[in-house]
């Protein structure tokens, strides 16, 4: 049986437009629209479904929309065409609604006896316009649109298994997002896109010249592209296992600023972040705290400064002979260490503090109970140690003390 074009459109009609905006169109479905499977398009098809396509009449063809969500809204019982429902009680009626995202325009292509799909639209529909189900031919025109479609990557179950082909130049030359629900195969799709592209080059007897950098926090791609795969990729890990061909991940200190390093390491703002900034500053100036003798000596002076301040604040060295004797023994040991460090530094910056300690010890060496220090003695020691600890830093040098 053949139908007139108007009769054919009436069979494909599933609802009307109830709301229009630049980013969303809402549709009220007819009460006799398909609940799960539609036969109007020419073959059995699941409808309504998320990501399926519908058509809306426009000035120069059809506006193509993609279903974003499906809902049920309690509305007055809809008036059916040609029927008068005088005896019905006006109770809330569950009316199905769709939200559609406009994606493009489908126009008639008379040269090829088909349709041509283009992105975007010149005019939006009006409230009350009819919403139609696309036929198989129209679905194929939507899915198989585009030029230079050279690489087949799969079939579309939503479009009667239409072939999905891509232009690899556009795919890898622009931004692309692979979206889907959990377990829908996003990781496999990404791995397949890369593998199929490399295999296509290898089948032509050429050496692939492409470079792919995969950030894999979940470890999903190590088997597909690792050192033991046929692609022989470099696998970098923070804790590398050399037995499996893994390489240790080393990030240069100049890669990020201190704020980015703090966010990456999740350093606490009060304790860890200041130390991290000092370490980064020292590394950027080619100064390492473990190897630089000047930094080690200044750090040692800082420890002595804290110790002598603590002894002076407690006050026992001024009144207790045992504490005064302990101070002499400590200063003797400190003097020896400072002399050793001072000899390793070219400009010998600790001569003054060594001289002050030596002057204090000169009248107290060998005594069983040395004289107790005066406040002026400890103040001078604190001043000299503070100057040795802070001092003038060489140009382009940062110290961690």
From TrEMBL:
Gene3D superfamilies linked to this entry: P-loop containing nucleotide triphosphate hydrolases
Name under which the protein is recorded: Helicase HerA central domain-containing protein
Domain Helicase HerA central: 152-298
InterPro entries: HerA-like, HerA_central, P-loop_NTPase
